Amino acid sequence: MNPPPASAPELRTDRLLLRRWRPEDKEPFFALNSDPRVMEHFPAPLSREESDHIADLIGGFLDQRGFGLWALELPGVAPFIGFTGLAVPHFEAHFTPCVEIGWRLAAAWWGHGYACEAARASLSFGFGQLGLDEIVSFTVPENLRSRRLMERLGMLRDLEGDFDRPALPERFRRHVLYRLGRSRAEPPASLP
Hints:
It contains five helices and nine strands, in the order ββααβββαβαββαβ. By secondary structure, the protein is an alpha+beta fold.
């Protein structure tokens, strides 16, 4: 991996701004984290305290690593619709250490292609500026919406890679693993 920039840069797509987190993002972040539709494939919706703590952690990782889970803004329309980006999982599995791509959008913004657009920008940054050889993603088998997005991104299911994610309740423990290598990724887009 190439050395990361000192601080994560903003990324822009045709419709989105992937940016650093702001204090005012905490309210809409809590709204999506407390929405049962958004949290269907997680053990439970988050409390305000849990949601704020995660927002603080995410913002810190952007500073420390030079990449992370960017806040998603739809300029001129909505200042915060969710997050998308790259993260380093904090658990041990047969494929770690690694960098994963992830996303979470408020339900009002589903179905418009925003998660895919932001994920492509994140992948381009990971393979281009960071020089990663592989990026993974994973979810519970029932999360078909995220699995379809992984496939649209060109990620391939690692049929031998299913794993039990530690510290989760049994119902949410089993995960499927998707992988994307730099050689299969779309050429990196030029990013600012």
